[in-house]
Inverse folding.
């Protein structure tokens, strides 16, 4: 089956006020996860603007090519790159491969695991950061996939 679309977030820095409601909503959307940190991060940019760090759902996910446990795969049904956090061995190989710095390592409560945006797969209502943003600076987008690495698509 050929993948022709991917699901992702779209961020408009001109609309962002830096309130971080998206970060709070992200953590709240994953109450049972071992990771207790947001998968989207808002930081101050230049001249009062803000930047968002999150998984942009690349056409080809470079971190998936170095994970020794093959835990980063493309889910055709959800149109999203997913990382199996509960099986992560914390080797850190994926972190420097992400050109967007969107994979984080969380040492919460003595457990180290890599994690990234999962588009709130399994959370009713979809990505909570989108619903929580009071200025609509974050939106859901469906984009065409030009090419997905052979074997990475599941």
């Amino acid at each position: 089956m050929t993948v022709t679309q991917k699901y992702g977030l779209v961020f408009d820095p001109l609309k962002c006020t830096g309130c971080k409601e998206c970060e709070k909503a992200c953590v709240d959307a994953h109450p049972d996860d071992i990771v207790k940190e947001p998968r989207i991060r808002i930081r101050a940019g230049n001249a009062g603007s803000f930047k968002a760090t999150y998984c942009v759902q690349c056409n080809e996910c470079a971190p998936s090519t170095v994970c020794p446990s093959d835990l980063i795969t493309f889910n055709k049904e959800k149109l999203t790159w997913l990382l199996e956090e509960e099986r992560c061995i914390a080797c850190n190989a994926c972190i420097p491969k992400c050109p967007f710095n969107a994979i984080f390592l969380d040492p919460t409560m003595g457990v180290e695991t890599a994690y990234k945006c999962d588009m709130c797969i399994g959370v009713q209502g979809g990505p909570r950061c989108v619903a929580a943003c009071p200025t609509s600076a974050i939106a859901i987008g469906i984009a065409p996939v030009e090419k997905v690495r052979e074997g990475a698509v599941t």
Helices lie at 21-29, 94-97, 128-132. The beta strands are 5-11, 41-44, 50-53, 72-75, 80-83, 104-106, 113-115, 138-144. The chain is about 10% helix and 25% strand.
